[in-house]
Structure formats: structure tokens, C-alpha cells
TrEMBL record:
Keywords: Membrane, Transmembrane, Transmembrane helix. The lineage of its organism: Eukaryota, Sar, Stramenopiles, Ochrophyta, Bacillariophyta. InterPro entries: Delta_CA (IPR018883). The chain crosses the membrane at residues 21-42. It comes from the Eukaryota. This is Uncharacterized protein. It comes from Cyclostephanos tholiformis.
């Protein structure tokens, strides 16, 4: 609210000649004093700037000589046993189940997030949480990523994209065919099921092909597409892998309704192409979707499930219905941004070493398992499959 308007000043009186001499003398004295003050302040500022610069240089020298990972290992604040992780073993155990055996199908992720898409699974009155997660007291509990994109966004990350290891085609039911394994992996290698690629990759541009010297992430590649997920929860604890429902017992969880879960648990999803170019550096990827410039502005919101290559259109995840907020656009980001995130993950109290590499991607969710409750602020929903 604006401050109240001040009353107008009283009219200025006309000065008599006898007052003018005194004011002139006082003005000269004031100006002299002001000049001296400015000179002194400038001198002090110069000295202070020099001291601050020296102090910053000294601090930088000290920081450069400290191995923070070694410091963590020797710190009594970071115990190595599960006794220090009160979320250890707190993950609620829900085995994946054949989708056909479910009396009430659970909406699955990752789905088509192209603007206007609506799934065929009628979820009734269930709605996703459309607020920024922090407004619902939902905090990030971990971070991980998948090779290629699990979601599908026409013209952003789809079968027309490319990367150093190619792409995957459309599945058969949507004029696509997913092989189920990385077609570029050779026998004996760890095969990771991959997803769709972005359209940024250019084999003639050095930023997509110049190798990066990875220090903390594992098995990553410049030019590749990765989908990053940040699970959030009101019932969890950061940064524990088991932490999504860390503060809930199975008995308490079983009393929650579908809408309660969708309101309390959500995931941020954002898709990136890795480049070796520091102009795309972002320093803080660990705490949630990047919302900066064009990043995090065009969002698809719906209810789904957990993902990964252990679930499919035959085997459903029972960790549902949770809210998904997915950036429809693919963005370029520097390899150093990911490496900094992996470093930050190593510095957390919990052991996040199992997530320093890309996980396999789920096949695109069939329309029959995709919820029909997509949220589009300011637009009319329509089905793109017609």
C-alpha cells in the first residue's frame, strides 16, 4: 500500500536583505565542509575496497585449498550408518502390479505433455495440485534423472529429435515401437532403456560434441537428452531417497484419499540437452525445477505415478496419484551444471550415490492409462489424438 500523501509545505517567506549576507556566509562554510567530507569518504572507500579485495582473495585462496568431500568424510555431522538417516527403511513398499489386474486403474506417468493433450483414463473429480509446490508446504526430497525424456512434447522432445546415440521411434499403439533397451548398447554393456531426444543437437556444433571432463556425475554425455525429476512432499524429508513418505506409517497412508495424495506429493519434471558451453551454466539444480527466463514457464500439470523402466503399459506403478508439473520445453544446459549438482548430491547427509547417473526411461504412457485431468491455465482442453 502506498504511504499517505503528505500535507503541502507552508508558503515560503520572502527574505529581507539583512538576512541574505548571513545565508551566503553559511552556504560557503557548508560547501567547504561538504567537499572535505566527500574527499575523506572517497579515501575511506578506496581503502575499504582494497581491504575487501584482499580479504576476498585470501578467502578464495583458502577455499581453493579445501577438499570439501574430504571434510565431509571426517565430519561428525555426517555419520555413515543408517542410524543418522531417520528415513532409512521408511519407504512405503508398493510393488508394481499388472495394470490389467487393478480393479481401479491408477493414472500413470510420464505421459504426453503436448499442450492440449487429454488422456482417456477418467479419474472423476481428482485434480492435480496446480499451485507452486512451496505454497502447499511441499519440499524437494531428492533428485534423479533419466536417459532421454520419459514425457513426450511435440516439437520439443519427441521421435524427431536427435543426439550422439540417436533416438527412439514412436510406439506401435501411437504409431511407435519401443525396443525396451538402448539400441546403441553393445552386448555386455549395462543396457539402459532410453527415451525421446530434444531437437537441439547439431553434430557440427562443438558445444554438442566437445567432451567434458566429468568429476562427479557418472556415465553422462555431452549432446545427450536427460529428463530431471525433483520429487516433492509434505510428508517427507530432504534429501533422503526414502523420504517422500518418511513421516507417514503405512497405516496412516492407507487412510489418505486420492486427492490427499495428489495435494501432498508432486514431482517437477524438466528436460535438458547437455552442452559443453559455460554460457549455459546454472549453479543450483538440486532444489527443484529451474524457473528463469524461458525455463519453467510453459508447464503441463496432471496426476500420474512414479516412473522408471520397471513400469510400463503392462506393469503399473501403485505410487499414485501424485501431481506432475512438467516443463513442455527442452532447454540447453552446461555439463558443468550437472556436475555441480552431482557434487551437491555428494555433499548431502544421505547417501545419494545411486543417483549420480541416468536411470532408464519408462515407455510413453498409453492413452488408456493417462489421466484426463490435465490443467491448462487460460486455455481450452482438447484431445490431440483425433
Amino acid at each position: 500500500m502506498c504511504p499517505p500523501t503528505e500535507s503541502l509545505p507552508a508558503p515560503i517567506k520572502v527574505l529581507q536583505p539583512k538576512h541574505k549576507f548571513l545565508i551566503g556566509a553559511l552556504s560557503l562554510s557548508t560547501i567547504s565542509f561538504l567537499v572535505a567530507t566527500i574527499v575523506l569518504a572517497a579515501t575511506n572507500k578506496s581503502n575499504s575496497s582494497s581491504e575487501a579485495s584482499n580479504a576476498a582473495s585470501s578467502a578464495a585462496a583458502v577455499s581453493a585449498s579445501v577438499d570439501f568431500l574430504t571434510s565431509k568424510a571426517s565430519s561428525n555431522f555426517f555419520a555413515t550408518s543408517d542410524e543418522d538417516n531417520f528415513c532409512a527403511g521408511a519407504k512405503l513398499a508398493f510393488d508394481n502390479k499388472l495394470c490389467a489386474d487393478l480393479e481401479v486403474p491408477t493414472p500413470q506417468a510420464g505421459a504426453n505433455v503436448t499442450k492440449g493433450y487429454v488422456g482417456d483414463l477418467d479419474v472423476g473429480d481428482l485434480v492435480p495440485n496446480t499451485k507452486p509446490y512451496w505454497q502447499s508446504s511441499m519440499c524437494p526430497v531428492n533428485v534423479h534423472w533419466h536417459l532421454g525424456s520419459e514425457h513426450y512434447s511435440v516439437g520439443q522432445y519427441d521421435e524427431t529429435g536427435n543426439g550422439p546415440n540417436g533416438n527412439i521411434p514412436r510406439p506401435e499403439w501411437a504409431n511407435r515401437d519401443l525396443s525396451g533397451t538402448d539400441s546403441n548398447a553393445t552386448e555386455g554393456e549395462n543396457q539402459v532403456q532410453d527415451g525421446f531426444r530434444c531437437l537441439h543437437y547439431d553434430p557440427n556444433d562443438a558445444k554438442f560434441t566437445t567432451p567434458y571432463n566429468w568429476q562427479h556425475c557418472e556415465g553422462m554425455e555431452v549432446g545427450e537428452t536427460y529428463e530431471v525429476h525433483w520429487p516433492h512432499s509434505t510428508a517427507g524429508a530432504y534429501p533422503f531417497y526414502d523420504g517422500v513418505f518418511c513421516n507417514l506409517t503405512l497405516e496412516t497412508f492407507s487412510t489418505l484419499g486420492a486427492q490427499d495424495i495428489a495435494n501432498a506429493v508432486g514431482v517437477h519434471g524438466q528436460v535438458f540437452t547437455i552442452v559443453n558451453d559455460e554460457s549455459y551454466f546454472y549453479p543450483d539444480m538440486i532444489r527443484g525445477m529451474i524457473v528463469d527466463k524461458e525455463m519453467g514457464k510453459d508447464i503441463h500439470i496432471y496426476t500420474g505415478s512414479t516412473t522408471g523402466d520397471k513400469v510400463s503399459n503392462e506393469m503399473c506403478s501403485l505410487y499414485a496419484p501424485i501431481t506432475w508439473q512438467v516443463d513442455r520445453k527442452c532447454h540447453m544446459i552446461s555439463a558443468s551444471s550437472f556436475d555441480k549438482m552431482c557434487y551437491d548430491m555428494k555433499m548431502q547427509r544421505d547417501d545419494m550415490s545411486d543417483d549420480l547417473h541416468a536411470h532408464g526411461s519408462r515407455e510413453l504412457v498409453n492413452d488408456d492409462l493417462a489421466a484426463n485431468n490435465q490443467y491448462y491455465p487460460g486455455s481450452v482442453r482438447r484431445n490431440l489424438r483425433s
